[in-house]
Design brief:
With 593 residues, this protein is α/β, with parallel strands linked by helices. It is built from 20 helices and 28 strands. The longest helix is centred in the C-terminal third of the chain and has 18 residues. The chain is globular.
């Protein structure tokens, strides 16, 4: 690996105060006070419209391939006009704005306009409209949120879903008619509504699926969004020194793209280039084109995105120079970044510009706005999540033989919209939000060294021997051993004698390997894991390659692409039985003894 030095960027403190209680609970918090933050997020839009009116706020490709750019002054003026239209329609918390389509300048303007006048915006996963066959989740979302206005960019793509799921009488606006929302000049009531929009005003409803697969409407208040951006500013002062430039595809119906990344740009007067690419064949090329033209100052992606971009960086010198030219930080989230990918980026950066770029990551959830933990001093390796950020209190609560991460502070949701039972269950008796995720110290003797993810509590189970199986780390080990041809896996073994796995092959495997070659690859991965295992709880004895991809309608996969372990075990119970059947079925792969 390269020994080149790190590119210097300003980083916040990463120290921690730790209190251990007799009941086994551990409390962690930053000793640094969270600074002041705005009453509402669009105060920053007003600020930059005054201070940098001609600076580009956001840009998106136009049909001719150029960039359609929105300045801060233009954005502020258009947000106020759209805000007038929303107030004229009587929209409110009970009748919010719902957006069904992907990231776009119109989506951005509508969301900001709604928040500007105190109307919640409810961005809905496009998968519920475009991938679902029964639209059940979309209907459920509409029943929960009861929007008064629905927006979709492209009528041809979304008309069928809207016809099937949107209640009659609900106004629908498509991109072709977006200008109708800007036909009214803003009146004094826009400013009055904005003045009433404060920390407790609901800014958004973000939908996340639980273990049952039914969406939950996570309330996101202005306090959550604004305090979270101040937490980011203190963890990464680099953001305040260099106006951030993002080239970003992460979807806005997720907290990472819609809260974290848009918020970073707006809070610090930066520029967002909307990337219409994705880390899949046929779309990654769009990302490559954008990154050849625009060099980001900070880059966010999921591990699969970094993997998809890597071969292009290796072979395209122009892309490398633009990408690394002014890049200060790279952040990954949503899953563990494979260590070889981590090291490959460090080597390419050193080769291109003589410096390595700092990798950072952290931990967060839709319910935490999302920024809750950060490795803002850098992580020694992939898989770590750092320490709680300024302004949040963290509690590690003993659950079985693990420690569950729980949080309390201004960035935490007050609960789920119109779902009081779920809200009550989400908080413990001391008011900490229960994440359902386990954490462990990298070094129990040195808490300042940070924590690492230790799996989802709801996924863990016991074998018939009474031995606990920690599913999250085991899935990560199998994914690393089977990379790049294993997309994900589901671990089985509840009340069984041994651990087995149902394996989803990756799209790359389908392109590059025959089924027989893939079986050989998986056999070798299982054998390596078995050789390194220390007992029945971390030894995968058998595996079965799945032919059908996970189904969003069956709740097997979220629109983020993450696997719902419970749902797969339920819907594919017959395949689980095949895994354990004797005599062994020929399609089952058995690890070497």
């Amino acid at each position: 690996m390269s020994v080149a030095g790190l590119r210097r960027v300003a980083l916040g403190a990463a120290d921690v105060s730790v209190i251990r209680r007799d009941d086994g609970a551990v409390f962690l918090r930053s000793p640094h006070v969270l600074g002041p933050y705005p009453r509402n997020l669009t105060e920053r839009l007003e600020r930059w419209a005054r201070e940098a009116p001609e600076r580009a706020f956001a840009a998106q490709r136009d049909p001719a391939g150029g960039w359609r750019t929105l300045t801060y002054a233009e954005a502020h003026a258009r947000v106020r006009r759209i805000g007038e239209a929303l107030l004229a329609r009587g929209l409110s918390t009970e009748r919010p704005v719902a957006v069904l389509s992907e990231n776009s300048l119109e989506h951005l303007l509508l969301a900001l306009a709604a928040m500007h006048v105190g109307v919640p915006c409810a961005p809905v996963s496009p998968a519920y409209s475009l991938l679902s066959k029964d639209y059940a989740k979309l209907r459920y979302v509409f029943g929960l949120a009861t929007p008064g206005l629905v927006f979709a960019q492209d009528e041809a793509r979304f008309a069928k879903a809207i016809g099937a799921a949107v209640p009659k009488g609900t106004e629908v606006i498509f991109g072709e008619r977006f200008a109708s929302l800007e036909s009214l000049a803003p009146s004094a009531r826009v400013d009055e509504a904005h003045a009433r929009t404060g920390p407790d005003t609901i800014a958004k409803f973000l939908f996340t699926s639980g273990s049952t697969g039914e969406p939950k409407a996570v309330i996101n208040t202005q306090r959550m969004l604004c305090s979270n951006q101040q937490m980011l500013a203190q963890a990464l002062p680099y953001l305040t020194e260099v106006a951030p430039v993002l080239v970003d595809w992460l979807p806005w119906h997720h907290t990472a793209g819609g809260n974290h990344n848009i918020g970073i740009v707006l809070y610090h007067g930066g520029t967002l280039y909307i990337d219409e690419g994705k880390p899949v064949p046929g779309l990654i090329e769009k990302t490559v084109r954008n990154l050849r033209e625009v060099g980001p100052t900070i880059y966010f992606n999921v591990p699969r995105g970094y993997e998809a971009l890597l071969p292009h960086l290796r072979t395209d010198e122009v892309l490398r120079k633009t990408f690394f030219g002014r890049l200060g930080l790279m952040q990954y989230a949503a899953a563990v970044l494979p260590q070889p990918v981590w090291e490959a980026y460090e080597a390419l950066a050193a080769e291109t510009c003589g410096e390595r770029i700092l990798w950072i990551t952290g931990y967060g959830a839709t319910e935490t706005a999302p920024f809750a933990m950060s490795t803002n001093r850098g992580a020694a390796r992939a898989g770590t999540v750092g320490l709680p950020v300024d302004g949040l209190e963290m509690k590690l609560a003993p659950v079985n033989d693990k420690l569950e991460a729980r949080f309390r502070g201004p960035g935490i949701t007050p609960g789920y919209w119109r779902q009081p039972e779920l809200t009550r269950a989400a908080f413990d008796e001391e008011g900490y939000y229960r994440t359902g995720d386990a954490m462990s110290f990298l070094d129990p003797e040195d808490p300042a060294g940070g924590l690492e993810f230790d799996g989802r509590l709801a996924e863990d189970f016991k074998l018939t021997t009474g031995t606990w199986v920690s599913v999250g780390p085991l899935r990560a080990r199998l994914g690393a051993a089977g990379a790049p041809y294993v997309q994900d896996s589901v671990i089985t073994g509840h009340d069984r004698d041994e651990v087995c796995a149902l394996v989803f092959p990756s799209a790359q495997a389908s392109r590059e390997m025959t089924r027989d070659a893939l079986r050989v690859h998986l056999q070798r991965a299982l054998d390596r894991l078995a050789a390194d295992s220390t007992g029945s709880s971390n030894r995968i004895a058998r595996a079965l390659l799945l032919e059908e991809p996970p189904s969003i309608d069956a709740g097997e996969v979220t629109d983020k692409g993450s696997i719902n372990q419970r749902a797969v075990l339920r819907t594919r119970a017959d395949l689980v039985e095949i895994l354990y059947a004797e005599p062994r079925a020929p399609e089952v792969i058995v690890a070497a003894a």
